[in-house]
Amino acid sequence: MSLSKGTSRLALLTSAAALTLGLGAAGAWPDTIKIGYISPLTGSHAEFSETDPFVLATMQSLLENGLEISGEHYDVEIISKDSQSSTDRAGNLAAQLIYDDDIDLLLIQDSLSSITAADQAELNGVPAISTMMPWQAWMFPRGGDPAVGFEWSYHFFWGLEDVIAAYQDIWTSVDTNKTVGAIYSADPGGEAFGSADFGIPAALGQLGFGHVNSGHFQEGIADFSPQISKFKTEGVEIIAGHSHVPDFSTFWTQAAQQELEPKVVTMAAALLFPSGLEAQGDRGDGLTTEVWWTPGFPYSSSLTGQSAAELAGQYETDTGRQWTQPLGYSHAIWEIGIEALKRAGDPHDKEAVRDVLASGNFDTIVGNVNWADTPIKNVAKTKVVGGQWRLGGDHQYQLLITNNASAPEIPVEASVVLLGDL
Amino acid sequence: MYDALTQSAVWRVKTPKSGLVAIALAAIVLALAPVAIGPGSLRLLVEVFTMIALAQAWNLLAGYTGFVSVGQQAFIGIGAYGMFAVALKMGLNPFSSVLVGGIVAAVIGAFAALALFRLRGPYFAIGTWVLAELFRIFFINTQYFGGASGLTLARVLRGIPRDVRLNTTYWLALALALGSTLLIYLLLRSRFGLAVRTVRDNEASAESAGVNVWGTKFMVFVLASFITGCAGAILYLNTMFVGANAAFSVKWSALIIFVVIIGGIGTIEGPIVGALVYFTLREYLSDFGTWYIITFGLVAIAAMIVAPQGIWGYVAGRFKYHLFPVEAEISKDLPR
User: Is there a single domain that holds both residue A184 and residue A271?
Assistant: First the structure.
């Protein structure tokens, strides 16, 4: 028996149609959620991303079997990009993720990128979560207004006022002559911390402390003698300001050579990472800094159930390196992102995801992140306390929480020791 | 009759049309690209085209006129800030503002030339860098231009539909890349182009042959500043945000020099080839972190050993072919 010509043509057409449909279905299923992630893996801010490969590996394994959302199964694809610590590159990467990869959600763990990448999300209607930048520096350069906010970009971090409150907490807890000498770098950070309206000078005015301002220095400066001699003349006992590690090292070495002996040194930026302290040799002992996440924070992960101490412990075991503060935030941004996609019901519905963020209240390993109830639109503030670096512990230096006035739930681990009493 | 006037007519280039044909074809095909390719690729092409323009301008300075600038970022930044300032503060359309950015850069380039031309060789190079640093520090400390925090264009771009914004930016970048290539090509084939290369090869003999050395250099420098300023404006129109540390970064000069050297210095094809090589490498390697930067170094070293004249220099030398011929040759049919 042979098939007629007509039948075979029909069969051919049918099978072709079936094949096409089948392929189409295979293309559409499993449904994939795409999450873009930008962080500074290389360049001047690379230290902020030191913990990222670890966090990304954790997320890859957690999302290996995809997500179950409203009874639907979704595969999850993480597209991680290196901003190279460049604002320009970050903006272009964000656009690429949005246009080429068609991401459903953008996560930005990068201080510099949070401006340009968030602007791209804003203009193209893609929900974005960012962190690692004081909120003022995230909002104002973008022309934002705390009363109005933005539509698509959501930020969680602390503000300058919180860091300065932590500094005030440190300075008022010890006995000094209340005279502060300050050095500020000539960059956005130094500009903000040195602002007479909302920076350290304003805070000192409120406290009734004296402020010896040495002005802004250009990064890479070789000689801090004028500043040091001014501080000596004015009898400064507290050193404060904003500087990155290389400049602070120059300053602190010259201070020793020229016998400037303050009782307290609290420096923004330079003292964030253990490497910055190790660069000072033994002279890092007793320096104080703001603390926004340590293994001592009393919060736990909504994804893994780990406590802060357990997460830091796992990081140290897996990588053999000391934990750093960004670890908590790198982890938390994923907690929020994944939870927001789940709550949205349809993770591809960008407006639904945005609405979840806008009305969002998330418990994370850095504490509660709440965009629903905030005086600053699109900004959820997180906790900052005061801490002091001390020699000893499992590594060369350990960071101990010393002052917690702004967040009493975070336990104090030691009290501030004056540099002269070490 | 055989006088000086008719004699000048024998200075003809060998294949006068290939470059013009190439530019015309590229213009037609690439102008239609927004119909065929997605917005992500369009944005990438904006970067490629602006890089071609930046490299053409630097090549005109270093490859044809003989002064090496490592301060091109001064004009990138000025072009960008000029554009942002008129778009944000005076409410001019951001796309037309690109031209203003270029003009501001040209004017500042003209004034800078007065001081910079007193310096020679390496001193000139360092002088251009110092100039760029001066502007970086100026913009960082000037609140009118956003200080160290920079300026965003998102506010004025928000009302413009996405396709209009992307396509217009793309066409501007395309026009700049092709326009600067065409302009430099025609310029170098002219009498002026001959003067330019004479200045490069020997200033004293150029002067004695009646070439206005200072004027020639001045014209070239201002033109390069204008092209670089326009490119800066388009680059930051694409990213929508300008900060002084990024715009006035010496990284720009390093990148431009890399592109021109790899592609082939002293040829018009070189900057185009170099830009294509750079972006191809970047797109394939940028996800590999530090290895990305190491690979660039290795490519640069390899190119200098294997093909010190750059990729196009190697190709042109080997096959005796120029798409954009600018060297004059005496034609065989001498006028009678």
Answer: yes
- Note the ipTM here: 0.72
Same-domain status, A283 and A409: yes
Angstrom CA distances, B256 to A97, A351, B99, B279, B280, stand at 26, 42, 21, 12, 15
B143's tokens: 């609140």
Q: Is residue B256 part of a domain?
A: no
pLDDT for residue B331: 57
Number of domains in chain B: 1
Residue pLDDT, tens place only, B222-268? 999 999 999 999 999 998 889 898 899 999 999 999 999 999 999 99
- Identify the residue with better confidence: B331 or A132: A132
Domain of A302?
A: 3-158+295-380
Q: Is residue B147 part of a domain?
A: yes
What is the rounded distance in angstroms from the CA atom of residue B34 to the CA atom of residue A79? 25
Distance CA B128, CA B122 (A): 10
On whether residue B321 sits in a domain, the answer given is no
Residue of A100, A142, A190 lying closest to B152 (CB–CB): A142
- As separate numbers, helices (DSSP H) first and strands (DSSP E) second, chain A gives 14, 17
What residues contact residue A405 under an 8 Å CB cut-off, 6+ apart?
A: A165, A169
* CATH code: domain of residue A189: 3.40.50.2300
Does A123 contact B245 at a Cβ distance shorter than 8 Å?
no
CB atoms under 10 Å from CB of A64, counted, come to 9
Residue A32 sits in the same domain as residue A86? yes
B59-70 pLDDT, tens digit each:
999 999 888 999
- Residue B232, domain extent: 11-249
Sequence length of chain A is 422
* Same domain membership, residue A137 and residue A26: yes
Summarize pLDDT for B128-167 with one digit per residue, the tens.
Answer: 999 999 999 999 888 889 887 788 888 888 888 888 999 9
Cβ distance of A116 and B141 shorter than 8 Å? no
A245 & A304 share domain: no
Same domain, yes or no: A272 and A407: yes
Say which of B154, B239, B287 has its CB closest to residue A82.
B287
Tell whether A69 is covered by a domain.
yes
Cα distance from A65 to chain B (closest Cα, Å)?
24
Task: Verify that A197 and A341 share a domain, yes or no.
Answer: no
* H or E element at residue A194: none
Between chains, do B151 and A141 touch, taking CB under 8 Å as contact? Answer: yes
User: What is the overall mean pLDDT for chain B?
Assistant: 88
Beta strand A379-380 with A31-39 is unpaired
Kindly state whether residue A90 falls inside one of the protein's structural domains: yes
A123·B240 Cβ contact <8 A? yes
Q: Are residues A112 and A89 in contact, defined by beta-carbon separation less than 8 angstroms? A: no
Match 């000689």 to its residue by tokens: A223
Task: For chain A, list residues with pLDDT below 70.
Answer: 1-30
Residue A386 in any domain: the answer is no
What end-to-end distance do the CA atoms of chain B give, in Å?
A: 7
Indicate whether B306 pLDDT > 60: yes
Condensed to tens digits (0 to 9), the pLDDT of residues A78-132 reads: 999 999 888 888 998 999 999 889 999 999 998 877 888 999 999 889 999 999 9
Q: What is the pLDDT of residue A85?
A: 87
- Give me the number of domains chain A comprises: 2
Is A41–B158 a contact, with Cβ atoms under 8 angstroms apart? no
- Digit-coded pLDDT (tens) for B176-190: 999 999 999 999 888
* Residue A154 near residue A144, CB atoms below 8 Å: no
Mutate to test the interface with B, among A84, A116, A130, A195 (most CBs of B within 10 A): A116
Whether the full predicted model's pTM is greater than 0.95, yes or no, is: no
B44/A187 CB distance under 8 A: no
**Residue B268 falls within a domain, yes or no?**
no
